[in-house]
Amino acid sequence: MKRSPDFPFSTVSAPTFWQLKRWGIPRFLMVCVLLVFSFSDALSQSVFEVVASSDNTLYEAAAGGISNGSGQYLFAGRTSSAAELRRGLLRFDLSQLASAGSGIRIDSAIVTLHMSKSVAGSMDVGLHKMQANWGEGSSDAPGEEGAGTSAASEDATWTHAVHTQTAWQTPGGDFESEAIASQSVANVGFYRWKSTSLTSTIQDWLDNPLSNFGLAIIGNEQAASRTTKRFDSRENQVALNRPVLKVYYSVGVGIENGSQIPMSDFSLDVFPNPANRSEDISFRFDSPVIGPVHVSAYDLLGRKLQSYMLETESSGSNTATFSPNGLSSGRYILLLEQDGARKTVMIVLK
To answer: For 3-35, b where at least 16 C-beta lie within 10 A, e where not — what string?
Structure first.
């Protein structure tokens, strides 16, 4: 079930009217309790987990032609054989997450890889955003797979994103030079990559699926000695060792009531949060239309404490302030409504 750690009822389902009556809760409090649960659902956090949908290894070779699209392993770093480089490729399909609804906000993202063999000590391994599409064919290297094998027709190689069909702009793959997440990898075991840049990348892929070209796994390529790390691929015989993307996400209130505003376009951010009661809180919201925005603050019993109207001067990003004067320390719900579309966020006053 969805979990919402900020609410006291996060571990149970919302009660019905008859349950509340049987428990002896006064009628005037029933609405408040049910409203708390509705806010809890609106701000609840869910988890999406998916195994890589495709992966491969680029084996440095001037003539290209080497790959390992269906192999059990991925490689990253420098080898002992002529000091050649290895670069892993990884991609995750987010279509199932996209089907969860509109207005999805990625709160955090974690990529987990299992490193199963190493020829060196602790080395930094980075995840880099790929800039071009690439292929995964039927090639399957023998033995330990470190040398690769002849590429199949759909494979990515050092020279081609798709073997014999589409060349990379730069041999070795087209990817951003700066890593979006980095991790020190030492002994055999599981390693996790997590960063705000990775989170924003997953959000971008979710909002713009055609930009999802996946990730490059780049090891230490600067050292003169061997640095290669071997990771288990999505085809690995041990299912638990396969590459996994875990995403924590929230879905805001999306009761459209005939609204023409796509909820994914109506966003809300509050800063600072937590905030001091004596200071104004700024909030930024993005809306594709110009029109009045109704702002309300509620406590966790569903009581409206403050309410006022804003007039947006332009579509796109708008910034305003909320004054918590008169509110005590605690947690509150800030609700924005425009043309039937709604967004909520919890604010914490200290």
So the answer is: ebebbeeeeeeebeeeebeeeeeeeeebebbbb
Q: Provide the 3-class DSSP secondary structure of residue 58.
A: strand
- In angstroms, the Cα distances linking 97 to 24, 50, 211, 350 are 40, 9, 16, 35
Topology (CATH) of 253-349: Immunoglobulin-like (2.60.40)
CA distance 182 to 248: 19
Chain segment 61-97, per-residue pLDDT in tens: 888 899 999 999 999 999 976 679 999 999 999 999 9
Secondary structure element (H or E) that encloses residue 342, with its range: strand 341-349
Backbone φ and ψ for 40, nearest 5 degrees, come out as -60, -45
- Per-residue pLDDT tens for 275-327? 888 888 887 777 666 667 778 888 777 777 887 777 766 666 777 787 887 88
DSSP codes joined into one string, 21-51: HHTT--HHHHHHHHHHHHHHHHH-EEEEEEE
The domains of the chain are located at: 1-43, 48-250, 253-349
Helix (H, G, I), strand (E, B) or coil at 332: strand
